[in-house]
Amino acid sequence: MKDRLRTLLTELMLIPGLSGYEGRVRRYLARELTGLGLETRTDRLGNLIATLEGHADAPSVMLFAHMDQLGFVVRKIEANGFIRVERLGGVPERALPSQAVLLCVGEGRDVAGIIANKSHHATMPEEKYKVVPYSDLYIDTGFGSAYEVLAAGVDIGMPVIYRPNVVALSETRIAGSAVDDRAGCAVIVEVARALGRMKKRPTVHFVFSVQEEFNLRGALTAAQVLQPDIAIQLDLLLATDTPDMGYRGDVRLGGGPAMSMYSFHGRGTLNGTIPHPALVTLFDKTAGRLKMPLQRSAHTGALTDSAYVQLVGGGVASIDLGFPMRYSHSSLEVCDLGDLEALTRLLVEGISGIGPGFSLDRDDHIQ
Questions:
Q1: What angle is formed at CA 183 by the lines to CA 176 and CA 221, rounded to 5 degrees?
Q2: For the segment 144-164, what is each residue's pLDDT rounded down to a tens digit?
Q3: Per-residue pLDDT tens for 10-27?
Q4: Domain limit, last residue, from 134, 162, 190
Q5: 96 and 61 co-located in one domain
Q6: Beta-strand relationship, 61-66 and 204-209
Q7: Does residue 329 register a pLDDT over 90?
Q8: In the beta sheet, which residues pair with residue 220?
């Protein structure tokens, strides 16, 4: 399984898929699911959905992860060929100068570029520690005029992402662009593979959602159509085992999958998720049976699709599960394949245990 996860994650991270432009990722995942014998469908927003039918009297489950990534869109092409961009998603401005990027014209036609960084020898002392706003940055593609840029297929509104990249750091750890959330997508493919071989299971809807980085849009429309009883969202959980993150919690890379006990954005969109107690108990007990560590996370500053999915219909019992990840939203994020493998096992065991007697009545659970 670990080798399959490595291959899936590596291939997924090398596919461009800015929010709103997820088509290449979606087609890759559709082929993988078709290879598992699952029929797929795509809604108007672009979500990829596959359903595995199960026990009709058991609560239905929507297992989902987003397939889009953050980046930029072209705002202006200067006469001299330099390109200005708008930010799409939470791109960290302090980490942008000198980054390699890809302007996504189309498969086989994408254009490479770099975000310019002012020459060190011309940088004044007062500039050395200044974070340059993204609106003041520009992309150099090597072309010398707007005409050449346009002739290459680049135009206003075109998606721009960090250059797709994968770096093997050790036997089990991988750095790459868009670990968030191609790792979650890879896990879902493996969960679908395993659940498809089981006779005891609830109905499970596998959803690969779009536009999560663009204010959490895709999964909500999928949930409105599917009307699941349970929603399990897969995404990163902030690893806090680096020198700059220790005060944020106790989630360790390589320490196993993690369960979010509280999330709250805290700015802009004031929303978050407090997990349903039935699902906390389910995955706590499942981890215990598997003799697997299950880390816990609680923090402000992050938000996932579950914040909105939980409000569909009469309410959906929701939980955020995930994998520890370092350096979120940077051009090279880091995860551990062992955590992804353990998360897969936790999900397969936990979901297959959701049967007709599984209660979502909060009064049946100690709080």
A1: 125
A2: 999 999 999 999 999 999 999
A3: 999 999 999 999 999 999
A4: 162
A5: no
A6: parallel
A7: yes
A8: none
30, 188 in Cβ contact below 8 A?
A: no
Output the domain CATH number for residue 320.
3.40.630.10
Residues 182 and 320 in one domain: yes
Which residues does 147 contact at the CB level (< 8 Å), separation at least 6? Answer: none
Q: Is it true that the peptide bond before 181 is cis, omega within 30 degrees of 0?
A: yes
Q: Distance (Å, rounded) from C-alpha 180 to C-alpha 68?
A: 9
The reported pLDDT for the residue numbered 79 is 97
DSSP 110: -
212 among known catalytic residues = yes
Give the integer Cα–Cα distance in Å for 69 and 332. Answer: 13
Could you report how far apart the first and last alpha carbons of the chain are, in Å?
36
pTM over 0.85: yes
- Asked if 12 contacts 194 with a C-beta cutoff of 8 angstroms, the reply is no
pLDDT score of 215 more than 90: no
Q: Residue 129 carries which side chain, given as an amino acid letter? A: Y
Q: Are residues 210 and 304 in the same domain?
A: yes
Among residues 162, 192, 223, the one where a domain terminates is 162
With beta carbons less than 8 A apart as the criterion, state whether 114 and 140 touch: yes
Residues 197, 321, single domain; the answer is: yes
- From the list 22, 32, 190, 212, the catalytic residue is 212
